[in-house]
Amino acid sequence: MEEKAKKIAEEVIRRKTRPIDGLEEMQNILRQTKYSERYIQFLNLEEDLNFLKYSSIAIGADFLESNTIDELITKEFECFLAFEKIVYEEGFEGKVFCAHCQNVGQTNTRKKLKFQLPPIQKVEVCSTCRSEKIHDLSTKQGQKKLAKSLKYSR
Ligand SMILES: [Zn+2]
Q1: What are 63-115's pLDDT values in tens digits?
Q2: What is the pTM assigned to this prediction?
Q3: For residues 83 and 148, is the Cβ–Cβ distance under 8 A?
Q4: Are 102 and 53 within one domain?
Q5: Which residues have a beta carbon within 5 Å of ligand 1, which is an ion?
Q6: Residues 50 and 67 both lie in one domain
């Protein structure tokens, strides 16, 4: 299933498949994987697009042109492929992204004094800079943060 999803993504990016058809195929994969977290962004995208479509009809605007939709879908596929590579192929699964030093790596635990009970608590921190601003890459939020930082560093 992973290979099939990646193939669809590559074909959309290389313009061999229409983005809207690629999105349709991802809906099938979603159903077959019982809405796996790995592909859930495509369900959200479908919902967002429908919402945009109906709300622009409702206000009588047609600012949602088909090339805008194509672009949105293609971007989501690009993002998807990048994460398949980062998270699953390059062994980043289970690692964290540090928003402070922008590194991807392991965590350490650090003892921290808090004004609550118990006063000394263990917190997970970045093993490089010991910041607490870390994001788990298994979540979409963590992946988005990583994507953002990669975008800025390019
Ligand atoms: Zn760090």
Answers
A1: 566 678 899 899 999 988 888 887 777 777 778 999 899 888 889 999 988 88
A2: 0.66
A3: no
A4: no
A5: 98, 100-101, 126, 128-129, 131
A6: yes
